Amino acid sequence: MADDPLGCLAPFAGRWTGGGDGHYPTIDDFAYDETIEFATIPGKPFLMYVSRTRHRTEGRPLHTENGYLRRSGDDVELLVSQPTGFVEIQRARPAGGVLDFTTLTLERSPEAKPVHEVRRRFEVDGDTLVYDFWMAHADTPLTHHLHAELHRASE
After folding, report:
1. In what residue span(s) does the THAP4-like heme-binding domain sit (predicted)?
2. Is 8 left (phi over 0), alpha (psi -120 to 50) or beta?
3. What CATH number should be reported for the domain holding residue 21?
C-alpha cells in the first residue's frame, strides 16, 4: 500500500468553520465568521485552499482568498491569491501540527494597498484549527492582525 501523498498535510484536510477577531492600529477592532476549506485531490500531494469571511454581526462579506497548500521537499508551501491584488508564496517546516510560515514572495498589483509583508501561522490539533496573521501596511511595521479558531465541520 502506497504512502498517503499528503503526508503531514493530511490533518489539515477538510472544511473548517468558526470565528475570529481582527485588530490593527489603523482600523477599528472587528469580529468575523470564517470558513476555510482544504480540499483534497485524490493521489495529489497538495490541498486546494479557500477562505471566506463575513462580518460577525452584519453578515456582509469581508475577505476571500484562494490557493494551495502543498508539500515541497521537507517543507510546506502556501500559495495564495487575493482579489485585492496580492499573490504570496509562504514556506514552513512542519512541526507537530504547526505550520509557521515565512514569506518567500509577496507581490501586489499597482493599484493594491501598500502591504509590504505578511506572516501566517496555522496549528491543527485534532478537530481544531487555530491561525494567526500578521501584516505590515504602509508605515505600520509587521503587526498582529487576525486570530481565529475554527472547528472541523462534519460532512
Report:
1. 6-152
2. alpha
3. 2.40.128.20
Task: Give a yes or no: residue 2 inside a domain.
Answer: no
| Number of domains observed in the structure of the chain | 1
Tell if the pTM clears 0.85, that is, is over it: yes
| pLDDT average, residue stretch 94-112 | 96
17 found inside a domain:
yes
- Cα dihedral 143, 72, 45, 103, rounded to 10, equals 20
Specify the pairing of strand 27-40 against strand 140-152: unpaired
d(CA 37, CA 145): 21
* Rounded CA separation 139/131 (Å): 24
Among residues 8, 4, 57, 2, the alpha carbon closest in space to that of 31 is found at: 57
Structural domain boundaries enclosing 48: 7-152
pLDDT tens, position by position, 105-118 = 999 999 999 999 99
Return the residue matching grid coordinates 521537507. 74
